[in-house]
Amino acid sequence: SCSQIEVSETQTIRVFRVVLPLYCVFLFVFSLQIPKTMTQGNCSSVTEFILLGFSDHPKLQIPLFVLFLLIYLITLVGNLGMILLIWVDSRLQTPMYFFLSNLSSLDICYSSSITPRLLLGLLTKKNVISFNECIVQFYFYAVFGTTEAFLLAMMAYDRYSAICNPLLYTTIMSQRACSQLVVGSYVAGIVNALVHTGTVLRLSFCSSNIINHFYCEIPPLLSLSCTDTWINEIVMFGFIGFTIITASLAILISYAYILATILSIHSYEGRCKVFSTCASHLTAVTLFYASAAFMYLRPNSKQHSQNLDKVASVFYTVVTPMLNPLIYSLRNKEINWTQTLEQTEAPSVE
């Protein structure tokens, strides 16, 4: 019955509200238990790093600068435009677009934590970054990346509620519930990033300071440490794996119910209409999770691993934030830029 479904959906929301805070508390407590590492030998601590980036292709520095600058500008314009469009169009004041506007904000922050520093290095060919700048860049990158992973899972649950229980959708996904899910995603991202940053700060860097990457990332930093990194590796595989697996399971379960609902629709047009509302989110999820899993969860390989890491990192830190607004606007007929601009510019007629 409808009352039973409503109780079930309310319990699901409560599970998210309980699990996310518990996850954050667990991460914080775990970080307090990590023993400090000791500097080995009479070596001086590293105060700055050199990001190699794409310096092994000097003739491509300017073309790469132009390419990444263009991608970054498209990312800013596309995501800011998406936020503005959702804000001014009354038809888009729904939970789905509330999550989408937050995703656009995350994509701007996510890309901005990496791309400007990359552009500066390509243009000036000065790839020196201080230790403190490296840690700050890594922290914000980890915050926005983890938050987006959880937010994509929340968006899948939103699609499940809208398609499988349309009559109770506005009740289940109330403004308060949506806000709590978004805030919970940010809190999980912040605490998760604090744990990873804390483990990095406990390492000692006293030999090479050359990072074969275009930003400060966990695997290259671990390879430079002159102390034992087994704790960091456990944290990286454990917590990143937990985030990817749990969020992926939430998405898969949501879409399993959605698929069952789609198959129960007899009309071909109806099936296509329902599927079209999910196709954009599925595309964004596949791009983000596939590249992240390839970067963090694949076995270490001594051959070509660093070049593959760079390609994967470019894809999910630079390219994906640019593609998200294009994917959602092209697949969703409700997002009509021209019509919205005409409505905002046209004078009201009484």
Task: Note the topology.
Layout: H1 2-33, E1 48-51, H2 61-88, H3 95-112, H4 115-124, E2 128-130, H5 131-164, H6 169-172, H7 175-201, E3 210-211, H8 218-224, H9 230-263, H10 268-296, H11 305-331, H12 337-345
Parallel strand pairs: 1-3
Antiparallel strand pairs: 1-2
Helix pairs in contact: 1-7, 2-3, 2-4, 2-11, 3-5, 3-11, 5-7, 5-9, 5-10, 7-9, 9-10, 10-11
Number of separate strands:
3
What separation lies between the terminal Cα atoms? Answer: 45 Å
Q: What's the helix-strand series?
A: HEHHHEHHHEHHHHH
What ranges have pLDDT less than 50 throughout 5 or more consecutive residues? 1-7, 32-42, 344-350
Fraction of helical residues: over 70%
Tell me what you see in this structure.
It is a multi-pass membrane protein. With 350 residues, this protein is mostly helical. 74% of the residues lie in helices and 3% in strands.
Index terms:
350 residues; mainly alpha; 3-stranded mixed sheet; 3 strands; 74% helix; 3% strand; globular; receptor; olfaction; olfactory receptor activity; G-protein coupled receptor
Summarize the entry for a quick read:
The chain is mainly alpha-helical. The protein has helices at about 1-35, 60-90, 95-110, 115-125, 130-165, 170, 175-200, 220-225, 230-265, 270-295, 305-330, 335-345, and strands at about 50, 130, 210. Belongs to the G-protein coupled receptor 1 family.
